[in-house]
Design brief:
Length: 383
């Protein structure tokens, strides 16, 4: 293993093993601590254990009306979920695992596998279950996102959707004098079901209060008045194979601008600007190409030494294989050079299988990723 390589003795490596059909089996961090995943005969995750085989968390699956997945997380070392492991320093007194030594969370699902209720066992300040109601509209969309509320039960038993919905509204109306206990989305009338408006909990932020987030969907039709061209730069990354390193080296350049109406443009207006719609302060813009890749994220605001509202652009650059190779923040837009890339940009390199093998964050040295023959990531670090 690379961990035992003398040349990597000072490296911070994270490694692991994986089952080809199930997924990760073990994970070893840079300190040598190990997490072990145990699966049942159906290939479902059953337990996660530490290096001493103490159970960190375990999962129980129920199929009925409704279906559910129960997750139990232990706060004290235990080999069986019943008694404390006395071989662990600091726990020699032993004893039983009590309700305070573990947390229980249950997700109830419908026949389509969609979550319809989330239960946090005994997690309220008074020790009662906390429930989150989940519902869908006639098109299967989650138009309303409800806040959780504290029940008067401690058994994590399923509560009917109608009861949890009514109880949520009653709880917030009683406790806070506000029955708008949910965020809401308004969708466009098309098969795309794109969000046009999104509100937040609370009457002051409710739908049609004038304080929603709003969305507009356009193309890059704006022209830079200085150049007469599109105001979206077109960066390119050329990947060249380096057989010695076993990866593609990248050269970044800016050729021109994107032709008009060739990018999808999404504008989001924040809650304080939803009544006076205009792109500028209080709005956030995203440009994507026809493949759905993000090309540009544009925010508006004041910059240092400039009281005017200006755009702050972050560009995403892809190579000829479609891999993200560079993220260029606003401060690095003036010119593309080696020092500028190393000091301000996020850089990524890939091997012949399009796997990420090197990455560099601004101001840091290169970090490396190693894969085994089955293409699972086994090591990650700096050396």
């Amino acid at each position: 293993m690379l961990r035992n390589d003398i040349s990597l003795s000072n490296a911070l490596l994270t490694g692991g093993t994986a089952n080809l059909l199930l997924g990760a089996s073990t994970l070893i961090d840079s300190k040598g601590d190990k997490s072990i995943a145990i699966y049942d005969s159906f290939g479902r995750l059953q337990q996660v254990k530490d290096r001493y085989t103490n159970i960190l968390s375990e999962y129980a699956y129920v199929y009925g009306t409704p279906n559910s997945v129960k997750t139990t997380t232990y706060k004290k070392p235990t080999l069986n979920g019943v008694t404390i492991n006395t071989t662990i320093p600091g726990y020699s007194a032993g004893g039983s695992i009590t309700a305070n030594d573990k947390t229980i969370a249950i997700t109830y699902t419908d026949g389509l596998g969609r979550a319809i209720q989330e239960m946090a066992g005994k997690q309220s300040a008074s020790g009662f279950d906390i429930v989150t109601h989940i519902e869908y509209d006639c098109f299967g969309r989650q138009a309303l996102s409800f806040l959780p509320y504290a029940t008067t039960q401690t058994t994590q038993a399923f509560i009917t959707p109608a009861a949890t919905r009514a109880a949520t509204l009653t709880y917030y109306s009683t406790q806070f004098g506000d029955s708008n206990a949910y965020a809401e989305k308004a969708f466009e009338l098309s098969p795309y079901s794109r969000v046009l408006k999104q509100s937040s909990p609370g009457t002051a932020w409710a739908m049609n209060s004038g304080h929603e987030q709003r969305y507009e969907y356009k193309t890059n039709s704006d022209i830079d008045t200085r150049t007469g061209l599109s105001n979206v730069r077109k960066y390119s990354a050329t990947a060249t194979w380096d057989a010695t390193k076993g990866l593609y080296d990248i050269v970044i350049s800016v050729n021109s601008t994107y032709p008009l109406n060739t990018l999808y443009k999404t504008i989001m207006y924040d809650e304080n600007h939803s009544q006076n719609i205009s792109e500028g302060n209080g709005s956030y813009v995203e440009f994507k190409d026809k493949s759905g890749r993000t090309i540009l994220k544009r925010a508006y605001g004041k910059s240092s030494g400039n009281s005017a509202i200006v755009s702050h652009d972050t560009y995403y650059v892809y190579d000829q294989f479609g891999n993200l190779t560079c993220v260029i923040p606003p401060k690095a837009l003036s010119t593309i050079s080696g020092p500028m890339l190393d000091g301000l940009c996020y850089q990524y390199k890939y091997d012949a299988r399009n796997r990420l093998v090197e990455k560099k964050l601004p101001g840091k040295q290169w970090e490396f990723i190693v894969y085994d023959k089955r293409r699972f990531m086994v090591h990650y670090g700096v050396w």
